[in-house]
Amino acid sequence: MLPTPPYRAVLPTRRILLAGLGASLSGCAIAGAAPPEGARAPVGGGADETHVLQLSRLAFVACLDQAKPQPLWPAIAAARPEALVMLGDNVYADNLSGDPALPEMRVAYAALAAEPGFAALRARVPVFATWDDHDYGLNDAGAEFAHKAEAKRQFADFFGLPGGHPVRAREGVYRSILAGPEGARLQILVLDTRWFRSPLTPTDRKGAPGRERYLPDRDPDKTMLGPAQWAWLAAELARPADLRLIVSSIQVLADGHGWEGWSNLPLERARLFRLIRDTGARNVVFVSGDRHVGALYLEPAATDAPLVELTVGSMNRPAGRSIDEAGRNRLGDTYNEVNFGLLTIDWGQQVFALELRDAAGTPVRSTQLSLRAV
């Protein structure tokens, strides 16, 4: 049974229409370019990045193969996002050569930079990104990847992080962004689920439903984020915000499959939920990628308030087939064709909509929630 309002799921044909959208952030903090005068406030002792303008419409993409056609960019541009969030596998650049200079990554990023649709959007809106495995360096890789420092350097260069940016000075690519005034303050917490992550436990029945590749591992010494990132996250969740996006390259709430996800390390996922509860953080929304399918999830009992997750499928490498997967907290079915995600916030009415849209820009999965409920 789907939850009743205010957790209304619109599946799969109804479109959410919200009025009274906020001001555009066009041109602010463009990846690889300096923001206009006054658009970015000094960081000081606050978030890694602070933007004074209000964000009300964000697009999300994942699993983008730079060597394949990229048909979604026109639809994304037509959706008029004020920022683009890239959820990982932003290019496919596995270090198959073993060369520590990661030449595959340089070529991949150059190809993406030359894509007209991406280049046009990047020139107009800020781009916030994390990585997943294929733009980190190896399939399913974690802390053990030997060339991650070079991968990080190329990541930071491509996304235009200045020399003094906190990401340049610390391990991993996690970062925080605060945008907008009090009453319409959006916090974006970009996690790194690769750099520090402990080895996962391989399955004993490869391909079996629920055990496809990995098994849950309750070893208390294993970590998803590492001590420094956990401490950073605790401090960030304690900051005032009216809506919080936690960007995780891998799924957080999803159960019922044995692919990569926070369910691989259940004690770490429980720690995340506990941290959200103990810091009193409200209005938390997870956004993830990795799976090559799109879906919406709602977990009503993980913390003191419901948690919702939008998993965005692939830009151009979709599963393309029905996935019969258990989903006790999934809202409706997965969507298995190319798609992108969209968050629309009506700050005046205190509601927001999460959508998956297809190549025509048509909503195919969506839900609307109240900020008072989450």
SSE inventory with pairings:
Layout: E1 8-10, E2 40-41, E3 49-51, E4 57-61, H1 73-78, E5 83-86, H2 103-113, H3 116-122, E6 127-129, H4 133-136, H5 148-158, H6 166-169, E7 175-179, E8 186-190, E9 201-202, E10 214-215, H7 226-237, E11 243-247, H8 266-278, E12 284-288, E13 295-299, E14 307-311, E15 340-346, E16 351-357, E17 363-370
Report on this model:
Helix content is 18%, strand content 20%. It is an alpha/beta fold and 374 residues long. It has one domain: 4-Layer Sandwich (Purple Acid Phosphatase, chain A, domain 2), CATH 3.60.21. The strands form 3 sheets. The chain has an 8-stranded mixed beta sheet, with no helix packed on it.
Regions with pLDDT < 50 over 5+ consecutive residues?
A: 1-45
Task: Please summarize the sheet with the most strands.
Answer: 8 strands, mixed
Arrangement of strands in the largest sheet = 2-3-7-8-11-12-14-13
Looking at CATH, which topology would you report? Answer: Purple Acid Phosphatase, chain A, domain 2
Give the % helix: 10-25%
| Total of helices | 8
How many structural domains in the coordinates? 1
How many strand segments? 17
CATH architecture: 4-Layer Sandwich
In the CATH hierarchy, what is the class? Alpha Beta
Succession of helices and strands: EEEEHEHHEHHHEEEEHEHEEEEEE
| Whole-angstrom Rg | 19 Å
CATH homologous superfamily title: Alkaline phosphatase D (PhoD)
What's the end-to-end separation, in Å?
Answer: 19 Å
Strand fraction equals: 15-25%
Coarse structural class: alpha/beta
Shape: globular
Average pLDDT for all residues: 88
